[in-house]
Backbone:
């Protein structure tokens, strides 16, 4: 099987352009995620609407013929693009929660929401950086450290449940629980991207299949 370096040499301009496009998409959805969380915290319906509009304007990824010659790299690019789109979908769902919360008091769980968002963003950024640089060790590290999100989500859950002790804030708490679930979903997607990158960089068929399966499992 050809090495990744060989694949990059085979069509360097196309791969460079495709990598840049994927990185741009990743940055865009990370910003959307932060914007949506900011809208939830500030109860900013206009900011939420901007997140939704920007996500709708992102065009689908196209794979041109030179990249399609290498099926493995083309498949990885499409899967990573799909993962970025799913992160954008989570950001939109969070923004819709912000719109529903616009008339309610500011979020009591602001610090916890920001920290969980930062963790999810950092994981996705790490996976995409590993993809861009062809860094197997970094991709494996991202793929294997998803458990770090558990204490963050527990802390957020405690704050939300305490908030919901007030009957008048049960609706707010329900929305924040949904937001928490979306952030956890983004972290899972980052794990799946990292697994996809490891599968791409692995040179043995057995390891490739194992890591692809791990990526699928992270989304289920």
Residues:
């Amino acid at each position: 099987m050809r090495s990744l370096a060989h694949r990059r040499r085979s069509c360097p301009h196309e791969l460079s352009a495709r990598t840049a496009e994927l990185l741009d998409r990743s940055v865009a959805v990370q910003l959307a995620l932060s914007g949506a969380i900011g809208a939830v915290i500030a109860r900013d319906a206009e900011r939420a609407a901007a997140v939704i509009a920007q996500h709708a304007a992102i065009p689908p990824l196209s794979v041109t013929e030179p990249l399609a010659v290498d099926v493995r790299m083309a498949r990885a690019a499409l899967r990573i693009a799909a993962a970025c789109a799913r992160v954008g979908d989570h950001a939109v769902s969070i923004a819709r929660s912000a719109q529903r919360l616009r008339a309610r008091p500011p979020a009591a769980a602001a610090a916890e929401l920001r920290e969980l968002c930062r963790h999810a963003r950092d994981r996705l950024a790490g996976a995409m950086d590993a993809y861009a640089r062809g860094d197997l060790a970094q991709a494996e590290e991202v793929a294997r450290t998803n458990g770090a999100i558990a204490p963050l989500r527990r802390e957020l859950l405690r704050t939300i449940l305490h908030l919901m002790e007030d009957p008048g804030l049960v609706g707010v708490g329900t929305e924040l629980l949904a937001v928490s679930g979306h952030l956890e979903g983004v972290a899972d997607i980052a794990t799946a991207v990292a697994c996809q990158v490891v599968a791409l960089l692995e040179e043995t068929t057995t390891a490739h299949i194992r890591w692809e399966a791990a990526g699928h499992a992270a989304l289920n």
About this structure: DSSP finds ten helices and no strands in the chain. The CA atoms of residues 86 and 189 lie 8 Å apart. The two ends are 30 Å apart (CA to CA). Residues 170-201 form the longest helix (32 residues).
